[in-house]
What we know:
- About 45% of the residues lie in helices and about 10% in strands.
- It has 16 helices and 7 strands.
- Helix 1 crosses helix 4, helix 3 crosses helix 4 (about 60-75) and helix 12 runs parallel beside helix 13 (about 250-255).
- By secondary structure, it is an alpha/beta fold.
- It is globular and about 80 Å long.
- It folds into 3 domains: about 10-75, no CATH class; about 75-135, no CATH class; about 160-330, Ribonuclease H-like superfamily/Ribonuclease H (Nucleotidyltransferase, domain 5).
- It has a 5-stranded mixed sheet with strand order 5-4-3-6-7, with helices on both faces. A two-stranded antiparallel ribbon has the order 1-2.
- Pfam families: HTH_38.
- InterPro entries: Integrase_cat-core, IS30-like_HTH, RNaseH-like_sf, RNaseH_sf, Transposase-Integrase, Transposase_IS30-like.
- This is TRm24 putative transposase.
- GO terms for molecular function: nucleic acid binding; transposase activity.
Amino acid sequence: MAHTELDLRERRIIEDMLKAKISVSKIAAELGRHRSTIYRDIKRNFYTDGELPYLNGYYCVMAQRQAEARRARRRKLIRLPKLRMAVITQLKEGWSPEQIAGRLAFEGHAIRVSHETIYAHVYSAEGQSEELARYLPSRRKKRRPRYARRPRGQVFPPDRSIHQRPEHVNTRETFGDWEGDLMIFERAQGNMNVASLVERKTRFAVLFRNNDRSSNHFMRKLMDVMEPLPQQARKSITFDRGFEFREWRKLKTGIGTDSWFCDPQAPWQKGSVENLNKRARRYLPRDTQLAALSNRNMRAICDRLNGTPRKCLGWRTPTEAFREELMKLR
């Protein structure tokens, strides 16, 4: 994993745990950091008062300010005015940070800058004072961290990895194991999207409109859709590691459905729903006006997808295969 800086929240935890006489190794484990990272930060930012030794110690706010000052000194776009102006000029021309960094490398400039450095400058105090973020193709009020501040091991723990998924799910032997994803549309649609689900054994597809990409909203909507099914027909769902699925625990507590997660950047591990998305795009292209898409329209698309014979089902349709499995549960 690439290096990421400690933030104020983490430094506050370090300060509190040091005051409680907790070892650096335990602090590192709590933060999901290597202990050398914690040792280094304490050493760099430890305050020493020559006249009042009882004030000596690690203070999170002071440590954060010192770290930010060090970063400012080493940032190229602070130290090199000509490079900074060249970058800002291209931002105002509508270039993305990736395009600017890539072009500098292509032209063989001796001094180059990474797109992450450009983003960091845009969202720094200096960049915000110049309102540089308004020139980005995709704008936010604040820069999102390159990696989530909350350790991903807590969001998607190892015991929920697709590699821990039972073999009978992998081989499609049993009914009631699903794959889930979101179909994203043009930016003009805002946060509206379409959730796609497919039952792995029968290839039965479910599509529903989702008006908000927040994880809490998505999980509530998903539970409303899945809850009418018998428990044995909704045993598990496999997702990727998108932020929309962070509240997966609600599925277990709410409707008793387990969740499994693909490896990072490995969408092929949920190939059934990826295939469904490709077929559904024939009826739901990226420029679809989702606000005008009624529940009746969605059902008609699902009926068409589920009414098509499939070779993998012995030329039965997904609807026929799904109904057969439901009959067995009675």
